[in-house]
Amino acid sequence: MKDFTTNIRKVTKAVSRQGFGLILLLDMEHEVPYTICGSMAEVGEVVPVGSKAYQIAGRIFAQKPRPEKLAIAGSTQKEFVAGTKGKYTLTIATEFTDGDIISVNGVKYTCRASGAVAEKNEFNSGTKQVEAQVLKELIEKNETSFSLSTTADTVVFTQKIAAIGEMPFVEVTGSGKANIVKTISGEKDKGMIALLTETAQKHKDFFFLVSTENANEDIRQLSAWIDTQEKMYFVTSQSLLTPKLLASEQTVVMYHDKNNAYVAEGLAAYLATAKIGGVTAKFKTIAGVSEAQISETELEELHKNNGFTYLEKMGILQTSEGKTTSGEYIDIVLGSFWIKVTMDAAMASLAAQTEKINFGNDGIAKMVAVCKSVLNRAAEDQGIIEKDENGKGVFEVNYLPKEKVDGNDIANRRYHHVTWTAKLAGAIHTGIINGTLEY
Predict the structure, then answer these.
(1) Can you tell me the distance from the alpha carbon of 56 to that of 266, in angstroms, rounded to the nearest whole number?
(2) DSSP structure string for 405-425
(3) What is the C-alpha to C-alpha distance for residues 222 and 191, in angstroms, rounded to an integer?
(4) The sheet that has 101-104: what strands, in order across it?
């Protein structure tokens, strides 16, 4: 859980880079443990040469400059199979008496002869069945991984998520006796999305997602998953209808008639090495990809549905647009992510390197200064925010002085009152040049 979080609302319609430079290739044709590859030779050691995954990796590593590394994870189990929720049973063998203590995962629960105070994690002595029921009610207030139930003199811990949650650690002090055993082993969910979720939980360093699967239903599932993450998904489809099925700000769909073009995957590689948020995704040449065969009518409909393709214009092969399937421009989405991630990290660094951020105007000023520093970088280094005629970023940062902060917020050490607005730099995608010839 983050202590400092940056929320960004974009008022618009018409990243080796740490945090943004790593692409995850999800291979649903082979069993592949999460592996980082730095060359095609290394890719060939984890997936068969000539396979879809190998070809996609080839497209990614063919770009100049190319990403330094590529992550690959895979499974042949694409369809979802529900896992099994593990269960652990705590049995009260001997009743607890006054002063006995039972600790569950480090939390102490104390038995009283009478007058127990639940708020103090106390329970009254009684029969084993009664004590089990009261303990269940106390313990479940402190458990996040388990659902609790009782049967006779037992408390049953059931995993909320299959295979998530180790056996609770139980200690008893006093004359009472209790023991806990595993009654059902937990097994993980299986399938494409389950693999992706597990990979993201264990390996948080990738930002771009590509996959061997590009059927419309697979794309829909992967797009729905990416919308729950702070990441982006790029896919090449042979269906002109695919973009119309989605409205995701974090999904990019490119059309190409050749099933081995992998042009969107190549674009992801280009963007992973470029200035995050500082380059448009339109007009880009992707190494190794030929022109897509598409009519003017089809192209117009594709662009209308927020997809795009790869064409030759004025003798140059290039991407025909640069939008996500929501209609937002890719560079705007990337820029937004860059500001959020960078500001979160800068605020966390401030907290870690400062003895204490005082809840006074001096402490608030430190937070405001960090905010301004990141926005200046977004303007001067990244090209995300517009610069004025003096080369300064066009943004405004507002905050609430301590004197106007609610007392409850101060008591809870909570300050949610820094807000900012910034002018996007944008990019020129079309233009008209007017000229006059004279004798």
Answers:
(1) 8
(2) S-HHHHHTT-----EEEE-B-
(3) 12
(4) 122-124, 107-112, 101-104, 170-173
3 state SS of 38: coil
User: How many other C-beta atoms lie within 10 A of the C-beta of residue 16?
Assistant: 14
Helix, coil or strand: residue 146:
strand
Angle formed by the axes of helices 192-202 and 216-226, nearest 10°: 30
pLDDT tens per residue across span 4-22: 565 555 544 333 445 688 9
Amino acid 7: pLDDT: 59
In the chain, the amino acid numbered 345 is: A
How far CA 392 is from CA of 10, 125, 194, 244, 279, in Å, comes to: 20, 70, 46, 40, 19
- pLDDT tens digits, one per residue of 352-410: 999 999 998 999 999 999 999 999 999 998 999 999 998 899 999 999 999 998 989 89
Buried b or exposed e, range 36-66, using 16+ CB within 10 angstroms = ebeebeebbebbeeebbbbbbbbbbbbbeeb
pLDDT in tens, 114-128: 999 999 999 999 999
At 82-125, the pLDDT tens digits run 999 999 999 999 999 999 999 999 999 999 999 999 999 999 99
**Alpha-carbon gap, residue 254 to 291, rounded angstroms:** 12
Neighbours of 420 (CB within 10 A): 18
Secondary element (H or E) of residue 178: strand 177-184
**pLDDT in the model for residue 216:** 97
Helices 263-273 & 52-61 angle (0-180, nearest 10): 40
* pLDDT higher than threshold 70 for residue 277: yes
Enter the pTM of the model: 0.83
Positive or negative torsion for Cα 299, 302, 308, 310: negative
Helix axes 361-380 and 330-353, enclosed angle (nearest 10): 140
